[in-house]
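Teaching note: in complex prediction, the entire set of molecules is handled at once rather than each chain in isolation. The prompt given to students was simply: 'Predict the structure of this complex.' The entities are:
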Amino acid sequence: MEAIKITAPLDEATVKRLRAGDQVLISGVIYSARDAAHKRLVEALNRGEKPPLDLKSQVIYYMGPSPAKPGQAIGSAGPTTSGRMDTYAPRLMQEGMKGMIGKGDRAQAVKDAMQKYGAVYFAAIGGAGALISQSIKKSEVVAYDDLGAESIRRLEVEDFPATVINDIYGSDLYQEGRAKYRSKL
Amino acid sequence: MREIKADTVTEAVARLCQEANFFLPDDVYEALTKAAESEKSPVCKQVLGQIMENAHIARTELMPICQDCGATVIYLEVGQDIHITGGDLYAAINEGVRRGYDKGYLRKSMVNQPFTLRVNTKDNTPAIIHTDIVSGDKLKITVVPKGGGSENMSRLFMLTPSDGRQGIIDSVVKAVDEAGSNPCPPIIVGVGIGGTAERTLELAKKSLLRKVGEHNPEREYAELEKELLKRVNALGIGTQGYGGTVTALAVNVEVFPAHIASMPVAVNIQCHAARHKEAVL
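The expected output is the structure of the full assembly:
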């Protein structure tokens, strides 16, 4: 299957076009954030504070890299399990976030929020951090520096490989793929 | 009494931490190759190819296979005729972890306290150390970086004798089914049966050290492994959960005697980045 080239941040036309099962290559700017950063972001929003980044149209990558060696933009940089961000994701969609990249199933509440706010969930290949790092050209910590690997990074990506798991129409590749290959013994 | 310097232990652990994170074991790579051949889903086939490419990049660039360089689980087999000199054995091991994770540009993923504070210890210590005292005058050290995503899918089932063999099968299949796409399939399923709660969990984890494709030497348990593998692969989860015919590369069963009232079963899941490296001093 031919991969679809898309640009991040995501515009509305792109979000509408994507379907569960699509292979995509993402270029542009995405932000990394995982457990601890999500907790802080949502706590800040709930206190009515301005978050350290404008979430409108952004794609958040659930990832905490290994340290970059001298001369590298970033170390290994594969996705972490998305389910741990389920508590926070709907709040960020409410703020305008349009895409999430991670791995693993999402809660129904997150899937419902994706349809409501128009956001897409992509999976990157878990455990392929060395391969994925090659599509990250620049990495810069932009918030929560004290969290180390869990800080928020601005990432410039080129042809970052991902698969659409949940689209805005309610389709779910994990469920559909599994049903297709499940056999009774 | 043979003497081994604590510094020698530290150096060995530092080296093993890096090698384990950079070099995917050959048996795992071979199992991935076979999985790519047999897999029916074209998408999974393609992703398996990317996973192997990732292992190749890690090996040549000396980069971690996965950014999650794990909690550092360490198995020690301490010969009863050795004596560690010039320092404390566990302190020497933790110093090795500290140096290895720093020098290898490995991610430090340990926090000092599991709730509220959660401040990173910044050197991946403390290691999780398991010690067996054995005969002889050697020290065997096995370093197992264990990722959080797969570890979170661990399960303990306190079954009772009447649950029988079928109860074991149902529990293991349930654990893998519920884990779904989360633990980065294709996985290796470690199963402990018997002992007490903590012993069966230890068995499940330790079974992951076995070479992929090797079965338990006891025929009855080997048959159980084969049946479990078939059942798990029938779930259709596939590589990364995209739907496919290979969900697990292997199911490893380890068994221990149990109390007359008990039949505990533990499941410890290993992602496809099945990293471990050992040395004998």
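Point out the following to students. The radius of gyration of chain A is 16 Å. The mean pLDDT of chain A is 96.
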